[in-house]
Specification:
By secondary structure, the protein is α+β, with helices and mostly antiparallel strands. The strands form 2 sheets. A 3-stranded antiparallel beta sheet has the order 1-5-6. Strand 2 and strand 3 form a beta hairpin. This is YxeA family protein. Keywords: Signal.
Length: 121
């Protein structure tokens, strides 16, 4: 009986360590079945771009879902993105699988209102 309890305890500790490690290195949401995948929208700005030594740029921005709910998001682009372009990101929590440029008409109304408040013309 002691071996079963000890083995179960060790297994739980190892699972907790693995989950923490995944969260720290940024893979937590990618594999978490409880986090839903949803499109979020950003309006690009070169001030949010950080050049990485390996090539390309990392962007950190505020993103909005179709209901206008805000979430911080980080994503990578192979080159500098066009200023004030609308992007639709396929996101699962803080993990971005892919992104594509869309027109202003493709952005849901609530998300568009929030994005335009960030970048008034």
């Amino acid at each position: 009986m002691k071996k079963v309890i000890l083995s179960s305890s060790i297994l739980l500790i190892l699972l907790a360590i693995a989950a923490s490690a995944l969260a720290i290195i940024g893979f937590g949401d990618r594999f978490n079945p409880l986090v839903k995948s949803e499109p979020v929208y950003v309006l690009t700005s070169t001030k949010d771009a950080v050049k990485v030594p390996e090539g390309g740029y990392h962007y950190t921005q505020k993103a909005y879902n179709q209901d206008g709910d805000e979430s911080p998001i980080k994503y990578y682009a192979g080159g500098i993105l066009k200023e004030d372009a609308y992007l639709k990101l396929d996101a699962k929590g803080d993990y971005v699988r892919e992104w594509e440029e869309v027109t202003q008409n493709d952005v849901p109304k609530k998300a568009l209102e929030k994005l335009n408040q960030l970048h008034p013309n």
